[in-house]
Design a protein that fits this description.
This protein is mainly alpha-helical. Helices cover 67% and strands 3% of the residues. It has 4 helices and 2 strands; from the N terminus they run ααββαα. A two-stranded antiparallel sheet has the order 1-2. Helix 1 (2-32) packs antiparallel against helix 4 and helix 2 packs antiparallel against helix 3. 10% of the residues are buried.
C-alpha cells in the first residue's frame, strides 16, 4: 500500500509540473511566437553506438573479479562507473555535434545527475528496484 501512495505522489507532482509548463509555454507562445520554432532534437549514430558500448563495458567490469571479490562489488560503485561512462558518452556526442568541450562536459554532468536524481526519487517511491546489481555478480546484499 505504501508503494502505491509513493507512486501516486510522484505521478501527481509530474502531472502538475507538466500542466504548469504547458500553461507557461502557451502564454509565452502567444506573446513571442512559437517557443519551439527552430528546435531540432536528433539521436545520432554516436549516441546509439555509445549506449551499446556503455552497457557492454559495464557488464564486462561487473564480471571481472579481483581475488574472490567482483571489481564492482556494490550498487554504489556500479552507479558511479555507469555515471562516469554516461558522462563520457554524452561529452562525445555533444562535441561531435559542435558543442565546445567545456559546455559539453557541464551539460553531461547535469544530465547524468538529473537522471540519477529522478531514479532515486522513483526508487524511494518504490516504482523501481534499488538493486542495480545482478544476483550473479555478488552473493552479498546490496549496500543501503
Amino acid at each position: 500500500m505504501r508503494n502505491r501512495k509513493g507512486i501516486v505522489y510522484v505521478l501527481v507532482v509530474l502531472a502538475v509540473l507538466a500542466l504548469v509548463a504547458t500553461v507557461a509555454l502557451a502564454a509565452e507562445a502567444v506573446e513571442n511566437g512559437d517557443p519551439w520554432e527552430g528546435v531540432l532534437v536528433t539521436f545520432g549514430g554516436v549516441t546509439l553506438a555509445w549506449s551499446g558500448i556503455q552497457m557492454g563495458l559495464l557488464q564486462l567490469l561487473k564480471s571481472i573479479k579481483v581475488g574472490d571479490e567482483p571489481l564492482l562489488n556494490s550498487s554504489g560503485l556500479i552507479w558511479l562507473v555507469n555515471a562516469m561512462l554516461g558522462v563520457v558518452g554524452l561529452i562525445i556526442a555533444a562535441t561531435q555535434g559542435g558543442t565546445p568541450l567545456l559546455v559539453a562536459a557541464i551539460q553531461a554532468l547535469i544530465a547524468v545527475f538529473a537522471a540519477s536524481g529522478e531514479f532515486e526519487a522513483l526508487k524511494k517511491a518504490g516504482v523501481v528496484s534499488g538493486n542495480s546489481q545482478s544476483s550473479s555478480t555478488s552473493s552479498s546484499p546490496p549496500a543501503a
